Amino acid sequence: MSKVKAGGSSKNIHNNAGARLGVKRFGGQKVREGEVLVRQTGSTKIAGPGTFISRNYTIHAAKDGVVAFQKVRKTHFTGKTVPRTQVSVI
User: Fold this and answer.
1) Strands 59-61, 22-23: pairing kind
2) Which of 6, 53, 75, 82 has the fewest CB atoms lying closer than 10 Å?
């Protein structure tokens, strides 16, 4: 005889909405101050000149201008360098 009840399986529990992450304004687009440029989980893209990053890693435009993306090498504490995309507003 079993000591615990049968576990069973739930089939309809995955019904949460998506987080709507991703790039919201693309390179070459004009933006106003405060607009959301990128929504992300963790710092996959880094904030460059003319942008700032909020607590949930969302990158916003700090001034009016045109969005630009460029590849940069970011150095970690250990000395290892990793490629990152830098978002800037020019």
Assistant:
1) unpaired
2) 6
Q: Whole-prediction pTM value?
A: 0.81
User: Is residue 10, in this structure, part of any structural domain at all?
Assistant: no
Q: What is the mean pLDDT of residues 50-57?
A: 96
Q: What is the CATH number of the domain that holds 39?
A: 2.40.50.100
Provide DSSP, 26-80: -TT-EE-TT-EEEE-SSSSEEE-TTEEE-TTS-EEESSSEEEEEEEEEEE-TTS-
Range of the domain at 54: 22-89
Per-residue pLDDT band at 48 (split at 50, 70, 90): very high
pLDDT at 9 over 80: no
